[in-house]
């Protein structure tokens, strides 16, 4: 199945090809247009959606939480949004990608479809955001979370 998300602009593909080639990530240029918006979406959820929703759900508690507790809460809120989104998207691909359904188990593990790459792109966008959040607030999350975020981003991009 082709990537159901719009095709990336050729200028973006060309701009990312040298980096992708040097890192042996052949399909990265075809999904960078999903990574960048996902990163921005999760930052928006962190800065706007989580504080707004949380203040409405717990008006007597959330606004008075200490800075570190709010940051931690918002990161967990983003994580829940990501989990619900990426699992729904992955299940959709599992059931709707006819190309994938014709693959044997080895092809499903090692193969590629555009739709599967889309899921991977959105996941990489989240893990990129998670790395950014861990760097920015290392005093809140700690060094272990920073190393975990780096590892998760590395693992999620290796498949490109």
Describe the structure.
The chain is an all-alpha fold and 160 residues long. 76% of the residues lie in helices and 0% in strands. The protein has helices at 10-22, 32-57, 67-96, 98-101, 105-110, 114-136, 138-141, 143-158. It is globular and about 55 Å long. The model has no long low-confidence stretch (mean pLDDT 92).
Instruction: Please mark out the parts with pLDDT under 50 across 5 or more consecutive residues, or reply none.
Output: none
User: Could you spell the SSE succession in H and E letters?
Assistant: HHHHHHHH
Q: Assign a percent range to the helix content.
A: over 70%
Number of helices: 8
Given the helix and strand composition, which structural class is it?
mainly alpha
Global mean pLDDT = 92
Distance between the termini: 16 Å
| Largest sheet, strands/sense/barrel | none
From the structure provided, what is the oligomeric state, counting identical versus distinct chains?
Answer: single chain
Principal-axes geometry comes out as globular
Proportion of strand residues:
under 5%
| Gyration radius from CA atoms, angstroms | 18 Å
Number of strands: 0
Question: How would the blueprint of this fold be written?
Answer:
Layout: H1 10-22, H2 32-57, H3 67-96, H4 98-101, H5 105-110, H6 114-136, H7 138-141, H8 143-158
Defining key terms:
mainly alpha; 160 residues; 76% helix; single chain
Quick summary:
With 160 residues, the chain is mainly alpha-helical. Helix content is 76%, strand content 0%.
